[in-house]
Amino acid sequence: MFWFRLIIVGFFSFTALSLVSYQSIEIIHAVFDFIRDKHQLK
Questions:
Q1: What is d(CA 32, CA 21) in angstroms, rounded to the nearest whole number?
Q2: pTM of the predicted model as reported, rounded to 2 decimal places
Q3: Dihedral (C-alpha) 26, 23, 11, 13: value to the nearest 10 degrees?
Q4: How many CA atoms lie within 13 A of 34 on its CB side?
Q5: d(Cα 2, Cα 24) in Å, to the nearest integer?
Q6: What is the CA radius of gyration of the chain?
Q7: Whole-angstrom distance, CA of residue 11 vs CA of residue 4
Q8: How many CA atoms lie within 13 A of 37 on its CB side?
Q9: Domain spans of the chain?
Q10: 3-state secondary structure labels for all residues of the chain
Q11: Tens digit of pLDDT for each residue in 1-42?
């Protein structure tokens, strides 16, 4: 029973971590695009 709970908790934490890291990468890309667009306007 302990291993079963450990696997479920590990799976959920891995899913949450991958989602958060994916979103942070998307935010970083959006910020870089925003900065690049501002520099091109000048």
A1: 17
A2: 0.57
A3: 140
A4: 6
A5: 33
A6: 18
A7: 11
A8: 6
A9: 1-42
A10: CHHHHHHHHHHHHHHHHHHHHHHHHHHHHHHHHHHHHHHHHC
A11: 899 999 999 999 999 999 999 999 999 999 999 999 888 876
